Amino acid sequence: MPPPAAALAPNERRRSGPVTRLAMAVAEEACALAGVKPSGLSVVFASANGDGGVIDGILKALSEPGGEVSPTQFHNSVHNAPAGYWTIGHGSIVSATALGCYDWSFGLGLLKAVSEAVVEQHPVLFVAYDQPIPGPVGTVRVTKASFACALVLDPDLSQQAMAQLTLCYDPQSTERADMPAHDGLRALAMGNPAARSLSLLTCLAQSRAGSVKVACQPGQLKIEVSPC
Fold this sequence. Notes:
About 40% of the residues lie in helices and about 20% in strands. It is α/β, with parallel strands linked by helices. The protein has a domain at about 10-160: Thiolase/Chalcone synthase (Peroxisomal Thiolase, Chain A, domain 1), CATH 3.40.47.10.
């Protein structure tokens, strides 16, 4: 269970769910590691599933006599809720984007975040997250474990930089995407869309140069990693 979001006021903290807390936790860690102030960063939040627990609760409520849905559930059901909580918690007035691109949310979200950083020439916080969906929806949209990651992407090379990333998007590519070599990490990557980031994260954690292919739809995103 992710910790309560310390940046949120008590009322918002009580309203936020596990998915929001998970996304905010990794976002806070990334900002701390990069030594940047969260309120000054544009953000891109990407999730394949959104908050499946809230959706399951709404569907259960609608199936009962009266079909009343609580305002908090409805508020938390929108796909940009975690990004909204983040901007509220940090008093941010810069741009915030929420993407849902099914199993390709990590690759397309990263492409969006890097494109914004390069074109607009400002740092961007990218967050990818997904959790299992309970109830009937979870039986047809299987997500086997919780996972989230966050990266601060800066067009300028800073002292805190772990690596330089060079991206090439090929909409025509049919090459197979890379998966982690470790059995456990590969199973996680296959069982959670946000964990498709693990091949890239492995390179970063090991300070290893390499090329990582991430599936998109259409095509593929190729990432060249050069450690700093």
